[in-house]
Amino acid sequence: MQVIPSNIRGPLFMVVSTGSYLVNDTMMKLATAGLPPYEVLLLRGAAATLWGVPLLLMLGYARQIPLLFERKVLRRNLFELLAILCYVVALANMQIADSTALGQVTPLIVLVGSSMLFGEKIGGTRMALIGLGFVGALMVAQPTMRGISVYALLALGNAAFAAVRDIAGRKVGAEVPGMIVAISAVLVVLVGSGAAHLVTEQWVMPEGRHLLLIAGAGLFLIFGHFFIFMAYRVGPTSAVAPFYYCFTVWAVISGLLVFGQFPNALAVCGILLVMASGLVIVSLDERRRRTTVIA
Question: Is the pTM of this model over 0.85?
């Protein structure tokens, strides 16, 4: 019996996932100082594999290893690869506020797609709260869209591919463990980024600090993959997707603690709006769940 209801576990997993991804992104940003982006992706994939395979065996999933290459798992992770390849190029050529803002389209696409494919009811109140969360994320990112170009389209491509990834993840069978999906994603991106590096970049010898940062990024990448997959598996999309906006909140915290970037008053208001909209959605879902149980 689950102690925490699914409409709480799903958003909680999403918060942990976005935090893990942000730690990974922070380490990646530090590591790309002096290294080509696809080379960093390749090394991170190797590090994540070295972390992930022993973890897989320790958790007792040795017999499920063939599921790494299950068709629906690979389909989901192909979109993960396309998303990350778009994201890296966009981030390298755009202001981070702009790429972050465009990334906030992801939960909206997920909600519309889930409504169309799975018949999930969103409701006017929830859509309004999701819209407020989107506005809050834009207040934090404060995009300028100077020099909008093909790189902005790549940032939108990242958001679209990430949304399709999460929708495709809903079709992965319950018999496939979340950690299997996470490690499969690591392997797919490892191969794809390796190919991209060979075609577009020259190898640069990494320093010790690069390797330490990449090793840490690989570990948190696995956590991010695992928890975002589990978030959509255990919780309804309408309750989980809005908490993707927490990525922006984590980005502000990272900027403050790591890069010494202080949020202005507008960003602080945006953070509060993101948090408030998410909490109200959870509160509404919990009230509806209790009403259903009583009935």
Answer: no
